[in-house]
Amino acid sequence: MSLILDVQDMTMDFGGLRAVNNVSISMEQNEIIALIGPNGAGKTTFFNCVTGVYTPTRGGISIQPPGGDRESIKGLKPSRITEKGLARTFQNIRLFPNMTVIENVMIGRHTQLKSGVLGAILRGPRTRAEERKVLEDSYEILKKLNLGHHVNDLARNLPYGAQRRLEIARALATEPFLLLLDEPAAGMNPQETRTLEALIRKIRDTEKVSIFLIEHDMSLVMSLSERIYVMDYGKLIAMGTPQEVKNDPEVIKAYLGEEVSA
Amino acid sequence: MTLQQIKKTALVSLWFVFLTFPIMVIRVNTITQTITWRWHNMAFIALGTFFGGLLWRLALDRKPASARQAKQPEVLTEDPDVTDVKAESGIARRLGILRVKVAQKRTRRSLIALAVFSALLFPHLSSLYQTNIMITALIYVMLALGLNIVIGLGNMLHLGYIAFFAVGAYTYGLMHQYLGLGFWAALPVAAVLSTLAGILLALPVLRLRGDYLAIVTLGFAEIVRILLNNARNLTGGPAGISGIPRPSFFGMTMNLYQVSIYIYYIVLAAVVLTVFVVWRFENSRIGRALVAMGEDDIAAEAMGVDISRVKLTAFALGSLWAGIGGVIFASRTAFINPASFTVWQSIIVLSCVVLGGMGSIPGVIIGALGLILIPEYLRAFSDYRMLVFGAILVTMMVFRPGGLIQKRRRAYTFHVEEQK
Q: Is the minimum CB–CB distance between A118 and chain B shorter than 8 Å?
């Protein structure tokens, strides 16, 4: 089986601070994997490097979309990386607060559309058909994520859990093969977290999208992910199945500290 | 209105009495070296500020309630296509300032038709003076609509917009002076040049936002103005360019009155074209991407929007209208010099957009018309113009921070949903 995402020895320095140190992570198609670690371990920086917000100091990032060729995405602009099929959500929700819910999703369709300024002004049959299509597609995505009744609400007026779902909807609208979720369950209650877990599974199964998540909610991570990577102080300290990771002494040390020994 | 609020208001008016005491009550006569105490003024101030304060509090009290009401989902129409829904905000409803609810497409169409019709008849029903004022106002409507693309949609603070106006005006002036070209030949050239100037400015500021963008654009406008001022050999410096011809109409000779009406129709057509293009643009893929970028550029980029391209498009399309407006301006005044293109003009255009309602086309039009026409008709009170202006700005920011007509997002309906 081919690796859809392959990060090799990635290092990211901010001045003298090494936020990500020699990290290699790879994943296969249709996998759900998680990246965990204490606060400040460099998880979000890792995401930002993969999605193009930062260009890593060293190391390589390559992708192979299902049915496509292997290519390097290191140093590409975030918008180009999204075009290639990696979509992400943000740790602190970053919706377009004063746009309606459906418009938020329509922005996600941006890369799937072509019409330019001239087309918009003349509004020929092709542009009109495209606009109609994007509306319908966006509405379909909203319905899938149980947001159908919110279509015309402003994004900022949605309840918190719905805002999280909308972020996922918007990311799905870009038609990714890999979805990167940065702490999707942050701030959710246990009930909402369970719904989210089912939702993520459903997305993986029905949309054929692989999922890569960063999460602090251990019950979610343990039940959802097939493999887990653990980071601490910018380094990868463990990887494996949830069971293996749970019993790894290094991981326990990172999370709970270690006993003082002579 | 509680007792506590009345107490607070009384305290405020007491404070005002204290503050204004030296200037309103004491009058020193330096010739006879006597002091006149005008105690009645004190009473006026006390009463005036007290009741003014009460009104202010009353209005403030009602504001949060209206804000909540405005957040309710808007009325949907049966049209599956898109429809703009504008809701009057609560304060306007209560005070009866604005009773325009244009929910139905038909009403909106007839309103537009009425506006266009009255605009068409205007020069024939009014004097030459009125027509000339209206030409200026319409040029500013064009400027405001163009700037609205950058500020209202893209949320980028652009303080140098007038520079593109200057580019348009000077393109016509110089082309006439050196090449002898007329209005209609200069118009497309100026449009292209101002668009290019817009791209030229956008390129270095692609990575800037907020205050930094404002500073750079401000600097750019000053550079253009100072350049025009100092390139005496080319532009005539502060003396400017004079004798710029009016637009021609198949070689017909027209008197001043006819030419004014002719220019009026040209600028009206230009405004209609601007409205049309901006309206189509803002509801298109690129326009949506621009709005998204204004809301959150990192998220927009993560959604696949090419920020640089969208920014360049916004600046280019925004500057285009300023260039066209500049040519019309030059042909109307027949004389241009750098003093017409100061930062102050940029600020006025910016105020048109902000007061009218950022991102809202009817808002921006009303804002520009109001801001240019009201001072003209208030010439009698020209001493107090700035005072009134300031008071209006402050009141607006408190009660209607989104502008006169706030931007409403489009609402969509789906047949699928109705069948349920």
A: no
Segment holding A11, helix H or strand E: strand A3-14
Q: Which residue has the tokens 């020699």?
A: A22
All residues of chain A having their beta carbon less than 8 Å from the beta carbon of residue B299 are 90, 94-96
**B408 CB neighbour count, 10 Å cutoff:** 19
Instruction: Give this complex's ipTM.
Output: 0.89
CB contact under 8 A, A95 and B285: no
- Report CB contact under 8 Å: B301, A110: no
Q: Is A55 on the interface with B (CB under 8 A)?
A: no
For A104, the closest chain B residue by CA position comes to B292
Residues of A in contact with B301 (CB under 8 A): 77-79, 82
Domain ranges of chain A: 1-85+176-262, 98-173
Residues on chain A touching B71 (C-beta within 8 angstroms): 154, 157
Label the pairing between strands A178-182 and A86-88.
parallel
CATH of A1-85+176-262, one of 3.30.1540.10, 3.40.50.300, 3.20.10.10, 2.40.110.20: 3.40.50.300
**Which residue is closest to A48 within chain B, CA to CA?**
B302
Inform me whether the pLDDT recorded for A215 exceeds 80: yes
* Full domain range(s) for residue B289: 116-399
Give the residue on A whose Cα is nearest the Cα of B299: A94
Domain assignment present for B106 = no
Q: Is A130 on the interface with B (CB under 8 A)?
A: yes
Say if CB B93 and CB B400 are below 8 A apart.
no
List all residues 6 or more positions away from B320 whose beta carbon is below 8 Å from its beta carbon: B146, B191, B194, B195, B198
**B249 in a domain, yes or no?**
yes
- How far apart are the C-alpha atoms of A196 and B132, rounded to whole Å? 64
- Tens-place pLDDT, residues B146-173: 999 999 999 999 999 999 999 999 999 9
Query: Do B63 and B127 share a structural domain?
Result: no
Q: What is the pLDDT of residues A160-206, one digit of tens each?
A: 989 999 999 999 999 999 999 999 998 888 998 999 999 999 999 99
Please check whether residue B81 lies inside any domain of the structure.
no
Per the structure, the count of domains in chain B is: 2
Determine the distance in angstroms separating the CA of B293 from the nearest CA of chain A, rounded to an integer: 9
Q: Do A152 and B409 touch (CB under 8 A)?
A: yes
Q: Do A113 and B285 touch (CB under 8 A)?
A: yes
Interchain pair A120, B414: CB under 8 A? no
Helix/strand/coil (H/E/C) assignment for every residue in A91-138: CCCCCCCCCEHHHHHHHHHHHHCCCCHHHHHHCCHHHHHHHHHHHHHH
Instruction: Say which of B298, B307, B411 has its CB closest to residue A94.
Output: B298
In a domain, B125, yes or no: yes
Q: Are residues B57 and B196 in the same domain?
A: no
pLDDT in tens, A34-46: 999 998 899 999 9
Burial of B176-190, coded b for 16+ CB within 10 Å and e otherwise, reads bbeeebbbeebbebb
For residues B170 and B326, is the Cβ–Cβ distance under 8 A?
yes
Together in a domain, B129 and B45: no
Maximum CA extent, chain A: 79
**Interchain contact A218–B (C-beta under 8 A):** no
* 3-state class (DSSP) for residue B300: helix
Q: Does position A262 have pLDDT exceeding 80, yes or no?
A: no
- Residue environment code for A74-104, b if the CB has 16+ CB neighbours within 10 A, otherwise e: bebbbbebbbbbbbbbbeebbbbebbbbbbb
